[in-house]
Design goal:
The structure holds two protein chains of two kinds. Chain A is α/β, with parallel strands linked by helices. Helices cover about 40% and strands about 20% of the residues of chain A. The N and C termini of chain A lie far apart (about 80 Å). Chain B has helices at about 60-65, 90-95, 110-120, 130-135, 135-155, 170-185, 200-220, 230-235, 255-260, 260-265; strands spanning about 20-30, 35-45, 50, 75-80, 80-85, 95-100, 190-195, 220-225, 240-245, 245-250. The chains are: A alpha/beta, B alpha/beta. The interface between A and B is medium-sized, with 23 and 22 residues.
Chain lengths: ~650, ~270
């Protein structure tokens, strides 16, 4: 190609990085996707051609500079190419959560005014068609999988491969235009716009520039010495900033290979087949994996169970220390080695984590027990702290300095401060440009000199220099008697029990804490099966006396561990209820990244929460639910409220 | 503005071709019991043809006649313009007629993939020697057959259970695997014996979607037996109604729905 980058030095846009990778690593795989049972792969060289063909096709369809192109679908190479192709022609890619209901999708598409939408299959085509009347700017839709779409009107609907074909055919005519547009990209042009799910209110469009993405990718790749030969599995929602950084930012910066699973159902199998070296998962995935391991060990033979128990104890004792390179005596080392041969190695292999060199968890606090479990197996799992507004990275744990209750040291190039109220602020090259069409929110979050409020309460541990996050700043409160109330801290303790999927703790400004609890159907269902407990539905299972008893045991155990904590002993749970339905993002109870929307839940289950704080022993309730296709229905239930005996505390209170 | 296609009607743009199969005056008796008495109807290329009727109406018998499992005492079967001589089921299968069963008939111990691959049997080289050393043509064939199988697995969205033994699958998925096995043989006529029996609403919706997609994408002619009237009326282009071995109605769903004999057969009629 004849043209030369207009700026000297490092590439200043993702398309420029693509060109660099295509010339430097032209023949090594950039993308793999399992399709028709086989891993198909594309080299960096092929990727450049695919992206170019699609970009030309987009120009041909009339995509202009500054236009928005929405991307809705699961992680597939074509979807990532769409992002880079959009950037190449000077448009702004906007990945959207594919499981968003029509209403949410409509809001985002209207807000950014996307003229083009790239979708995965018929389901998403139908969803967009359903809301197209509300979208004034919407013009063209491009889909990947033609199945079921043959008979649709194709004047504004196009198949991805056809757009590429037309782009290739028009290469001579449009290539100059593409080159000109690509060369106009610089550090200040917009790289991507990502909507934050927002635990409160409507989503906000976070504008990230090439500077944000590339600078952050550069420093974070160095921090973890990511290599060109690394492999990642891209399975997290494309609309989430984490996936954008790993699968686009860092992948294009270091040139490693992005592997896409065959379907969301085959993720675990694909993970095992690929064996990523760089792995990222939110705590929920690790929780689920641990729950599955525990369930399956319950079913294992005696010898296996014994081996597992013995060696897991050994691992808990020395695993993390060995991983961190701390001194460990010879006997323990030998035992650990034996454990590795007999248990940890095979287990890691089953989990698909054998090759993981750098693993991260973030997005939510992870239960220390879960974290330690994976680390003790010898998996270099670390935590980082970040948000969309920071292009992910604010703090991260360096190798060998991993603590389960911290989120790591301040990343290179990041400045951090904690104000009097305990809220964490940061300033970095990754600081977002603005919230799109929302100057008030931008102003509220980001000060003129670049400091951004995270909305999280935390402090820097003076001994280790690590940042510790307590909770969302607005959630941390005081109880009626003035003691500290940190709901998430307690919820995380509850969620470590495999039987508990989700918990919401109330208590700010009240005399006592109470909890709504969701059981984990996989774990509890399995337990029910083994104990010959008959149940007909999720709702039925939740109200079973033995399930209630088991959950009560868990709550009591959490209370015992809270009692040891001077600061948080006031957060012991006095009363709880097991909810008759799973909290669901479709009902707005969780964000798309599965964070609890506390206020909304308190509002929605007002009757139950009220009952938790009077002396009633049951509560009848009717809850609205939204089905996957957007229809609404309701569930009625009568729930039992359990009061947890609180001898010690009441005795102590009485004494005072 | 993108216009979504209208729900299917008998007049939509799908190519419904000529008659592919014709049943002429079929009578089937088991001893003194007349299971089917002198029934005639036809199936057109590319359509979804339903056979409905109350319990014991003779629907499954009719399907078994088409698949060659029962040999009718009277009547003729014309397939692709030719009168079909008495045939064994495997010969019928070779003609391009595949079926699924009311009470699933899969190889329980084998994986989903292997089950689906058995559907390719009629496309495999019978040369035992070549198969044994697995070289040359045998290898190429295996690759091609696997490719076809994988396309169907992808189409029916059962990738996640590809390697799972069938015995471990829930009922709804087994039904889908059976459909996959029938489809992979690239049939020109697909017989479905109660594809939605025993399914919940969601599974029925999925299965309906797949049946429509199969018909749309591959242009496969489908003859199905079904109890669920709602499903039948939504899916099929034309419906044959049977009662006590006799044909009591034949036509597009709307005609059949308003046919008095059909209403009587389903709702009962007072004999006073």
């Amino acid at each position: 190609m004849a043209n030369v980058l207009t700026s000297v030095g490092d590439p200043q846009s993702i398309p420029a990085l693509l060109r660099r990778n295509a010339s430097q690593f032209g023949t090594v795989p950039a993308y793999r996707e399992k399709e028709f049972g086989i891993w198909q792969s594309w080299t960096w060289g092929q990727t450049e051609q695919e992206v170019e063909a699609f970009a030309l096709g987009l120009i041909r369809l009339g995509l202009k500079e500054g236009d928005f192109l929405a991307i809705i679908g699961r992680n597939r190479p074509y979807m990532y190419w769409s992002i880079v192709a959009a950037q190449s022609v000077g448009a702004v890619p906007v990945p959207i959560y594919q499981d968003a209901v029509a209403e949410e999708m409509s809001f985002v598409l209207r807000h950014c005014g996307a003229r083009f939408v790239v979708v995965g299959d018929q389901e998403q085509v139908d969803k967009v068609i359903e809301i197209q009347d509300q979208l004034h700017q919407f013009e063209h839709m491009i889909y990947l999988d033609p199945r079921g779409l043959r008979k649709y009107d194709h004047t504004h609907l196009h198949q991805f491969s056809r757009v590429q074909e037309q782009g290739r055919a028009a290469r001579d005519e449009l290539m100059d235009e593409l080159d000109v547009r690509r060369d106009r990209l610089n550090y200040d042009s917009t790289c991507v716009m990502l909507y934050t799910s927002g635990t409160t209110g409507k989503p906000k469009g976070v504008v990230l520039s090439n500077r944000n993405v590339i600078e952050t990718s550069k420093s974070s790749s160095q921090f973890d010495s990511l290599r060109q030969s690394d492999d990642v599995l891209a399975y997290l929602p494309m609309a989430w900033v984490g996936d954008f950084m790993f699968s686009i930012g860092q992948a294009y910066w270091t040139g490693f290979c992005v592997n896409c699973p065959e379907s969301s159902d085959t993720m675990m199998t694909d993970l095992r087949e690929i064996g990523p070296t760089y792995y990222f998962a939110p705590p929920r995935i690790f929780e689920t994996q641990l729950t599955h391991v525990m369930i399956r060990m319950e079913d294992a033979g005696r010898l296996k169970k014994w081996l597992f128990d013995v060696f897991m104890r050994q691992a808990q004792k020395t695993g993390s220390a060995i991983l961190d390179g701390k001194p460990v005596n010879v006997v323990d080392r030998l035992m650990y080695w034996l454990g590795h041969v007999l248990v940890y190695g095979p287990l890691k292999n089953t989990l698909g984590l054998s090759r993981v060199r750098v693993g991260y968890t973030a997005g939510e606090a992870i239960g220390p027990e879960i974290f330690d479990f994976f680390r003790s197996l010898g998996i270099n799992l670390k935590q980082l702290y970040g948000q969309t507004e920071a292009t992910v990275y604010i703090t991260a744990q360096p190798d060998g300095e991993v603590l389960s209750d911290s989120v790591g040291k301040i990343c290179e190039g990041v400045e951090l401060k904690v104000d009097e109220s305990g809220e964490v602020f940061f300033r970095s090259p990754g600081v977002f440009v603005e919230y799109y069409k929302n100057p008030e929110a931008t102003h509220e979050t980001k000060s003129p000199d670049g400091w951004v409020a995270t909305g999280d309460a935390g402090f820097i541990d003076s001994d280790t220099g690590h940042l510790r996050i307590i909770d969302r700043a607005k959630d941390v409160g005081k109880m009626a008697d003035g003691s500290l109330f940190a709901p998430k801290y307690v919820e995380n303790k509850l969620k470590f029990f495999p039987n508990i999927l989700e918990a919401v703790v109330f208590g700010g400004g009240r005399d006592a804490c109470a909890a709504l609890i969701n059981i984990d159907l996989a774990a509890v269902g399995n337990w029910a099966e083994r104990n010959n407990i008959v149940y007909s539905s999720y709702q039925d299972l939740t109200s079973h006396p033995q399930v209630m008893a088991a959950i009560q045991d868990h709550v009591e155990e959490v209370n015992r561990s809270l009692m040891d904590d001077r600061m948080l002993s006031g957060c012991q749970i006095h009363r709880f209820v097991v909810l008759h339905k799973e909290l669901d993002a479709d009902d707005g109870e969780l964000t798309r990244t599965r964070k609890v929307r506390r206020r909304l839940i308190e509002e929605k289950y007002r009757d139950i929460v009220d009952a938790l704080y009077d002396s009633s022993t049951t509560v009848s309730t009717e809850t609205e639910v939204t089905y996957e296709d957007g229809r609404k229905g309701s569930i009625k239930a009568t729930l039992e409220i359990r009061t947890v005996p609180m001898d010690d505390v009441s005795v102590r209170l009485a004494a005072e | 503005m993108i216009n979504q296609p209208q729900p299917r009607t008998s007049t939509d743009d799908r190519v419904i071709g000529d008659v592919i199969m014709q049943m002429k005056d079929i009578t089937l008796r088991f001893g003194g019991v007349v299971a089917i008495s002198s029934i005639s109807f036809d199936i057109r290329e590319g359509e979804i043809r339903a056979i409905i009727g109350p319990n014991g109406a003779g629907k499954s018998s009719m399907l078994n006649v088409i698949s060659g499992f029962y040999r009718p005492q009277e009547g003729e079967i014309w397939f692709r313009g030719r009168k079909r001589p008495a045939m064994k089921p495997y010969q019928v299968a070779r003609q391009g007629i595949a079926r699924t069963f009311q009470n699933i008939a899969l190889f329980e111990g084998m994986s989903v993939l292997d089950n689906v691959m058995t559907g390719r049997l009629n496309h495999m080289n019978p040369n035992v020697f070549l198969q044994a050393i697995w070289k040359g043509k045998a290898e190429r064939e295996e690759v091609e057959n696997r490719e076809r199988a994988e396309r169907i697995i992808d189409f029916l969205e059962i990738q996640h259970i590809r390697k799972t033994p069938v015995s471990r699958l829930p009922y709804g998925l087994k039904k889908r695997v059976e459909l996959a096995r029938a489809l992979v043989s690239e049939p020109s006529l697909l017989l479905l014996d109660e594809p939605m029996a025993g399914m919940n609403v969601e599974e029925k919706e999925d299965m309906s979607r797949f049946i429509l997609d199969v018909n749309d994408e591959f242009g496969t002619t489908i003859a199905l037996i079904e109890h669920d009237m709602g499903v039948v009326m939504d899916l099929s282009d034309r419906v044959v109604v049977m009662d006590y071995g006799k044909k009591i109605g034949d036509g597009i769903p709307d005609e059949v729905r308003s046919n008095q004999d059909v209403i009587d057969a389903y709702l009962g009629v007072s004999h006073d």
